[in-house]
Design goal:
Blueprint: E1 2-8, H1 14-24, E2 34-43, E3 54-62, E4 67-73, H2 76-100, H3 110-126, E5 132-135, E6 138-141, H4 160-170, E7 174-178, E8 185-190, E9 196-200
Parallel strand pairs: 1-2
Antiparallel strand pairs: 2-3, 3-4, 5-6, 7-8, 8-9
Helix pairs in contact: 1-2, 2-4
Length: about 200
Amino acid sequence: MDVVVTGRHCEITDRYRSHVEEKLAKLEKHDHRIMRVQVEVDCEANPRQRDRAVRLELTAYSKGPVIRAEAAAADKMAALDVALDKMASQMRRAADRRRVHRGRHAPVSVGQALADVDEGAAASSEDGLVGERQVGPITVTGDGPLVVREKVHPASPMTLDQALYEMELVGHDFFLFVDKENDRPSVVYRRRGYDYGVIALDVD
């Protein structure tokens, strides 16, 4: 397994590279197909965020889907440990899902998923919890901070089961994909345990 370590705003020593390679070797027991792991270390010199001064992202490339995990900590060693634990956990969950998700835990219908979303939005509005404010061209709901992060990833149409597997590997609670069966943009999301929901857009 090849390990590539790059740093932004910080120096990556040979000692740290060796430490990373030794730690990442443990991932092979979870997925023996891993061929390369990209490690990106970003050191943020913000005195107000000393406990999150280092942000680390792991990207594992194998014969299967790409696996990603992110973490932030006070130093490079701690950030690596947290990200490594996340990636190992994602690999275990994906393996468990392949064994468990067969038939009886199928996702709910699109109509039911949309009904749940509509009911939640209506309840928040009735309770007076939703307020809107304009921040430039964007309307922000609520009084929380505005966080904008944009990522673009190449994608190929896939089946629902493949999308569920990919979601487990990246460790997110949702996954955006194009359904191979009907070419619809769709989102699968986690509900409880091994239950999932799916929302699709009818572009017509």
